[in-house]
Structures are given as structure tokens and as C-alpha cells.
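Note to self: the last two entries modelled the partners one at a time, which told us nothing about the interface. This time every component goes in together.
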Amino acid sequence: QQQVKQSPQSLIVQKGGIPIINCAYENTAFDYFPWYQQFPGKGPALLIAIRPDVSEKKEGRFTISFNKSAKQFSLHIMDSQPGDSATYFCAASMDGGTSYGKLTFGQGTILTVHP
Amino acid sequence: GAGVSQSPSNKVTEKGKDVELRCDPISGHTALYWYRQRLGQGLEFLIYFQGNSAPDKSGLPSDRFSAERTGESVSTLTIQRTQQEDSAVYLCASSFRTGTHEQYFGPGTRLTVT
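The predicted structure of the combined assembly is written out below.
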């Protein structure tokens, strides 16, 4: 019930395309859903995050869509650029209780944006 | 200011040896987390520290793994009698306080057990 399932494992798009990465969760107690971007040899960096009280959040070219009833959320990257090539992780956590905000991560999606 | 730092960046050790990994969190961050990232996998939670509270050790995979934190500063993750399956990148993250707030990750320590 703690799992977060992420798809696809890898994704290749052309510059300007709109890659979409999907995640699904089971635990309805999760109340915070961040996306992390990781470049080779670096630690993950927070990209954008959403809470379940909204269905969409946009920051620059990055948008999270959230479907609470389906327990799914997705990341859309508008006008993708070669510099967006990285591994993307979705994650989920819950505030309070004994979980202290520890993140449960998806398996990651390797995104390649061709020039 | 400085981000989360970890040392060493790479560690190669022989099976059966003990290793110690270090994490220096961002100054003022009271919460500290350790995660493990196996090749091609997502991150797995290992242990969490918050101030002087008892750590949450629920993610430690075996009793060969332990971690300490001195107050709200440096933390060390120790793996005793290393096994080949311990090979992974060990990531440390800190956040301003507990709960669902941004966690800032260090660059990780790549551990290879031969």
C-alpha cells in the first residue's frame, strides 16, 4: 500500500514535444506529491509539488495534473528542451503521524529530448 | 549558502569490511533523511532524524545498517560486514522541519562492494 508506480520507464521525444510521465498510488493517506529531477551524478532536486486539494499546478513549463478519485498524478513538460533530459521521479508522502514526511518514490523515468 | 554535502563521493570496499558514510545537512535544517538508490531504481527510505527525537529506523534493511546524528548537524551511516547487495548510491537529504516540506538532497555516495 506504500508503493508508487511510475510509467513509462523511459521516454524519448523531440525538442518542443510534450512528454508525459504518470504515477499511481494506493495509500489514500498520502497528501503531498512532489516530482524530482535527477541529472547523472547528482542528487534529486525538487521540480514541482502538489497537494490533493487542487487538480493542477503549473510552474513554468512544468505542470502536474492530479486525479484524486483515480489516485493518479502526472507530470507534463511543455516545449521540452534537450536540457530537460534527465531522470524524473514522482514521490508521495504524508504529513504527521509516524511517517515524518519520508518520501516513497516511483521507479523513475529516463527522459531523452532530442534536438 | 552551502547545500547538503556528502563524503566520500565514491567508496569501493571489499565484502565483509565496514564502511562509514557522512552527511552534512544544510545549516538550520532540523530533519535529516537517508535514502538508498540501487542502479536503475527509485530511492528507498532508510532512516530519519528530527532534532533530539528518537530516529525512525523503519527503513533500515538489516541490523548491519546503523546511523547516528550529532544534534542537528552531521550524520553518519555505517554499514557493517558489507555485502555485494549493499552496492548502491546512498543519498542524504535535509529539510527545514518535519512534514511534507522540500527535502534538499546531497550528491550521494556511490558504494561499490567487490
